[in-house]
C-alpha cells in the first residue's frame, strides 16, 4: 500500500502588526510570514478500515481530536464524503506552543497529503479555505513561501522571499497560549507599529540590513512583560552579535537573523547557556 510524505515547516513572523480587535473576538492583523528549514514530517497511509489513527514519537502532544493534524484529516474526510481510513505518523521536530505554527503546519501538511492520498484533486485555494476553518495560520502553512497575511491571517498575498541568511531559533522552557497573548494585547498601548511596506521594500531589494531594521512584532511587549526570560533571550542574541532579533508570533520563541556564517556559532553557543531548545536553520526560499 502506498505511503505519502509531507514536510510541515515552521514559520516565523518578520512583521506582525495588529490593527484592531474585531467584533468576532479575533484581531485584524497585517503580517509578513516566511518558512524556515525546521520541519515536522507526516507519513500518511491508507487503513483498511474507516478510521483516523494518529501516532507520534513525541510524548507531549495530544493524539486524538485535539491534534490539529487529526482535525484536518476529519475535516477533509467529512467535507468530501471520503469513506476511507488513514494512519498518520507525525514526526514532531518543531517545539510545541512556541510561536512557530507547528500545529498549524501539521494541519496544512495533512490537508495537502490527504488531497493526494485520496485523489481529491482540490486546488490550493480550496485547501486554504478549508485550512482557515482550523486556524488562522493554517492557510499560510498551505501556501508556504513568503506572504503578507491580512484579515485574521487568512487573506494571503505571496511576495518576494527574504535574502538568504542564518536563522537562530531559541525557545525558553515555557508554553505560551496565543489566545492569552491576544487577550492581554491592547492596541492603544502600541507605541510604534511596524511597517509592512518598509519590509516589502527591503525584501524586493534583497537588502539584509534593511530587512533586519524593518523587523517588528506588536505582540512582543505582551509576552516580554509576562515572561522576563524572553527579554533575556533577546538581549543575549543581540549581545552575541545577531543582526536582527525578534519574537515570533505570540512567542516565546525568539529568532535571530545572522548574515555571516562565522558569527552563527557565537550566537548559538551564547543561547545554549539559556535554553535547551536552540536551532540553527536557513530560510526556506
Ligand atoms: C500569533 C500568530 O501565530 C501569528 O502568525 C497568529 O496570529 C495566530 O494564529 P493561530 O495560532 O493559528 O490562531 P487561531 O488558532 O486561529 O486562534 C487562537 C486564538 O488567538 C486569538 N487570535 C488569533 C488570530 C487573530 N488574528 N486574532 C486573535 O485574536 C483568538 O483568541 C483565538 O481564539
Ligand atoms: N500537531 C500538533 N503539534 C503541536 N501542538 C499541537 C498539535 N495539535 C494540537 N496541538 C496543541 O496546540 C497548542 C499550540 O501548539 P502549536 O505548536 O501549534 O503552537 P504555536 O507554535 O504557538 O502556533 P502559532 O504560532 O500558530 O500560534 C498546544 O497546546 C498543543 O497541545
TrEMBL record:
Name the EC number(s). 2.7.1.148
Q: Which Pfam families match?
A: GHMP_kinases_C, GHMP_kinases_N
Domain GHMP kinase C-terminal per the UniProt entry, residue ranges: 199-276
Stretches of the chain forming a coiled coil according to its record:
none
Please list the residue ranges annotated as the GHMP kinase N-terminal domain: 67-145
Q: Which UniProt keywords apply?
A: ATP-binding, Isoprene biosynthesis, Kinase, Nucleotide-binding, Transferase
Q: Where does ATP bind?
A: 95-105
Per UniProt, what is one GO molecular function of this protein?
4-(cytidine 5'-diphospho)-2-C-methyl-D-erythritol kinase activity
Q: Into which family does the record put it?
A: Belongs to the GHMP kinase family. IspE subfamily.
Q: Which PANTHER family match?
A: 4-DIPHOSPHOCYTIDYL-2-C-METHYL-D-ERYTHRITOL KINASE, CHLOROPLASTIC (PTHR43527:SF2)
Q: What does this chain do?
A: Catalyzes the phosphorylation of the position 2 hydroxy group of 4-diphosphocytidyl-2C-methyl-D-erythritol.
Q: Spell out the protein name for this chain.
A: 4-diphosphocytidyl-2-C-methyl-D-erythritol kinase
Organism of derivation: Cohnella cellulosilytica
Amino acid at each position: 500500500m502506498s505511503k505519502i510524505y509531507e514536510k510541515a515547516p515552521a514559520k516565523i513572523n518578520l512583521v506582525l502588526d495588529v490593527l484592531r480587535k474585531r467584533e468576532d473576538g479575533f484581531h485584524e492583523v497585517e503580517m509578513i510570514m516566511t518558512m524556515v528549514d525546521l520541519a515536522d514530517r507526516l507519513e500518511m497511509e491508507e487503513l483498511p478500515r474507516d478510521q483516523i489513527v494518529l501516532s507520534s514519537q513525541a510524548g507531549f502532544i495530544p493524539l486524538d481530536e485535539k491534534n490539529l493534524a487529526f482535525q484536518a484529516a476529519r475535516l477533509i474526510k467529512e467535507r468530501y464524503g471520503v469513506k476511507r481510513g488513514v494512519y498518520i505518523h507525525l514526526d514532531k521536530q518543531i517545539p510545541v506552543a512556541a510561536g512557530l505554527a507547528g500545529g498549524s503546519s501539521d494541519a496544512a501538511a495533512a490537508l495537502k497529503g490527504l488531497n493526494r492520498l485520496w485523489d481529491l484533486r482540490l486546488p490550493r485555494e480550496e485547501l486554504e479555505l478549508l485550512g482557515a476553518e482550523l486556524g488562522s495560520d493554517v492557510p499560510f502553512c498551505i501556501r508556504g513561501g513568503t506572504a503578507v497575511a491580512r484579515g485574521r491571517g487568512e487573506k494571503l498575498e505571496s511576495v518576494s522571499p527574504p535574502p538568504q541568511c542564518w536563522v537562530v531559533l531559541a525557545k525558553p522552557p515555557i508554553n505560551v497560549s496565543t489566545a492569552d497573548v491576544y487577550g492581554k494585547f491592547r492596541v492603544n498601548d502600541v507605541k510604534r507599529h511596524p511597517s509592512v511596506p518598509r519590509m516589502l521594500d527591503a525584501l524586493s531589494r534583497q537588502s539584509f540590513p534593511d530587512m533586519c531594521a524593518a523587523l517588528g512584532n506588536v505582540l512582543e511587549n505582551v509576552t516580554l512583560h509576562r515572561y522576563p526570560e524572553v527579554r533575556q533571550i533577546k538581549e543575549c542574541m543581540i549581545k552575541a552579535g545577531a543582526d536582527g532579533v525578534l519574537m515570533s508570533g505570540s512567542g516565546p520563541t525568539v529568532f535571530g537573523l545572522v548574515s555571516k556564517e562565522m558569527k552563527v556559532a557565537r550566537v548559538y553557543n551564547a543561547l545554549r547557556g539559556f535554553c535547551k531548545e536552540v536551532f540553527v536553520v536557513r530560510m526556506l526560499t
